[in-house]
Specification:
This protein has 229 residues and is an alpha/beta fold. It has a single domain, classed as Rossmann fold (3-Layer(aba) Sandwich), CATH 3.40.50. The protein is built from 9 helices and 7 strands. It has a 7-stranded mixed sheet with strand order 3-2-1-4-5-7-6, sandwiched between helices. Strand 4, helix 7 and strand 5 form a beta-alpha-beta unit. The termini are far apart. The structure holds S-adenosylmethionine. S-adenosylmethionine binds next to helix 6 and helix 9.
């Protein structure tokens, strides 16, 4: 069933904000570290070179959850700038704590709906890599429109990638994996980097928290890799 807000024409979001469940440590990190590491979203174009104060390649992770994969990558790839987009405050707090703990310099966060950030904040052909690991699967048919991967958003993502840039996605929900393939194969200038309609068998990426949960339930994992041409 659609909620009353959705029926009244409000945007259909790919997430639900759940209140509560933030720890003292996460709240403390938000109070103390937000201004240093979270980039304010205003609806205006961002100057990523100025934000990172260098010209290194830029990877954006959408929906980084509790941030374990993002922190892992930022620590290993010191010559890449990472920008994580997430709406879940406990995840932002946990990631800020880890940024401080490991003294990470090449990572910034945005706390806002990624669909709006991509529409308004990035220049075309400005990003080297976009990662979407285990987006909410919205398994019920009536919720399918809430899935992040839709033709319109995928087309915007493609526009923001530099030529030769990559889009890497993963999911443990086969119907969503098939949906991603059917949408992405038709996006202009995106080419399946493995082979047409194919998944990536041995993907290079850290294991995520959501993935670990899926694996303990016995779920298989599907990765997809697309290149901007
Ligand atoms: C299923 S969780 C996966 C988290 C993490 N990638 C992992 O694999 O552990 C999906 C995450 O995407 C975030 N998310 C969903 N839609 C979003 C959006 N439009 N903008 C930013 N974050 C979003 C949710 O808040 C949630 O934390």
């Amino acid at each position: 069933m659609l909620s009353d807000k959705e029926k009244k024409g409000r945007p259909v979001r790919s997430y639900v904000i759940r209140s509560g469940r933030i720890t003292n440590s996460q709240r403390h990190a938000i109070d103390k570290l937000w201004n240093d590491h979270v980039v304010p979203y205003s609806g205006e174009l961002l100057d990523l070179r100025e934000i990172f104060n260098n010209r290194l390649p830029i990877t954006v992770e959408i929906g980084f959850g509790m941030g374990s994969s993002l922190i892992d990558m930022a620590r290993k790839e010191s010559k890449t700038n990472f920008l994580g987009i997430e709406v879940h405050k406990p995840g932002i707090g946990k990631t800020l704590n880890d940024v401080e703990l490991y003294a990470i310099k090449n990572l910034k966060l945005i706390c806002h709906d990624a669909t709006e950030v991509f529409q308004n904040a990035f220049k075309n052909k400005s990003l080297d890599r976009i990662l979407i690991y285990f987006p909410d699967p919205w398994p019920k048919k009536r919720h399918a429109k809430r899935r992040l991967i839709q033709t319109e958003f995928a087309t915007i993502i493609s526009e923001k990638l530099k030529i030769g840039g990559h889009l890497h996605l993963s999911t443990d929900w086969k119907p969503y994996a098939d949906h991603m393939v059917s949408v992405l194969e038709k996006v202009p200038h995106l080419k399946n980097a493995i082979a047409q309609n194919s998944f990536w068998e041995n993907p290079k990426r850290p294991e995520t928290k959501f993935e670990r949960r899926g694996k303990t339930l016995g779920n298989k994992i599907w990765d997809l890799l697309y290149k901007k041409e």
